[in-house]
Amino acid sequence: MYEGEIASVLVTEQQIQDKINELAKQIAADYARDGVTGDLLLVGVLKGAVMFMTDFARALPIPAQLEFMAVSSYGSATSSSGVVRILKDLDRDIAGKHVLIVEDIVDSGLTLSWLLKNLASRNPASLEVCSLLRKPEAVKVDVPVKYVGFDIPNEFVVGYGLDYAERYRDLPYIGTLDPKVYSS
Ligand SMILES: O=P(O)(O)OC[C@H]1O[C@H](OP(=O)(O)OP(=O)(O)O)[C@H](O)[C@@H]1O
Ligand code: HPA
Ligand SMILES: [Mg+2]
């Protein structure tokens, strides 16, 4: 699939699945230790987090409810416009709920910084973030991300939910693109 378009594999399918199991166990233990009762509310950030959200929710050994928000700041570019648009809001009130934002990537941090302010204003009981990927060298705004799967180099990546111009989300691993893809 995508013959000749992927330059390198940064995180394999197996590495992703192992990390998800590790994060799920750790997060369940943390919430149990903090005495959280009642279902956790996972807020998946569409579209990028869709694969991570569904695998993570199934790996999590405590009950969780699933909600989605769709925001976009990249469009078909490889750097954030900095303007975050809500394409789909949550369907319900999160006041008093223990909310865990499930993201695919923290790159500049602009999306998450905006989202954390937006959701905090709705008065959840707690608000934390779990992101599969983070690019430490790309961060423009400091955002508190309690759970991170992999720190990766400052390169544009695709796969496992992440797109370039809406393509490659369906790959089961994280990779970089051959430069010819950008010029075609
Ligand atoms: O830290 P940042 O620089 O803000 O980048 C991270 C955000 O950018 C991507 O979303 P995008 O806007 O591409 O929408 P998508 O998930 O629908 O692809 C990604 O899924 C994150 O939500
Ligand atoms: O590296 C990336 N790849 C795809 N989408 C993204 N959104 C933020 N950073 C990235
Ligand atoms: Mg995108």
UniProtKB/TrEMBL annotation:
Pathway: Purine metabolism; IMP biosynthesis via salvage pathway; IMP from hypoxanthine: step 1/1; Purine metabolism; GMP biosynthesis via salvage pathway; GMP from guanine: step 1/1. Pfam families: Pribosyltran (PF00156). Residues 14-164 form the Phosphoribosyltransferase domain. Its main location: cytoplasm. InterPro entries: HGPRT (IPR050408), Hxn_phspho_trans (IPR005904), PRTase-like (IPR029057), PRTase_dom (IPR000836). GO terms for biological process: GMP salvage; guanine salvage; hypoxanthine metabolic process; IMP salvage; purine ribonucleoside salvage. One of its GO terms (molecular function) is nucleotide binding. One of its GO terms (cellular component) is cytosol. It is an enzyme of class 2 (transferase). It catalyses: GMP + diphosphate = guanine + 5-phospho-alpha-D-ribose 1-diphosphate; IMP + diphosphate = hypoxanthine + 5-phospho-alpha-D-ribose 1-diphosphate. Keywords: Cytoplasm, Glycosyltransferase, Magnesium, Metal-binding, Nucleotide-binding, Purine salvage, Transferase. Its EC number is 2.4.2.8. Its cofactor is Mg(2+). It is found in: Cytoplasm. Belongs to the purine/pyrimidine phosphoribosyltransferase family. NCBIfam families: HGPRTase. This is Hypoxanthine phosphoribosyltransferase. It comes from Amycolatopsis bartoniae.
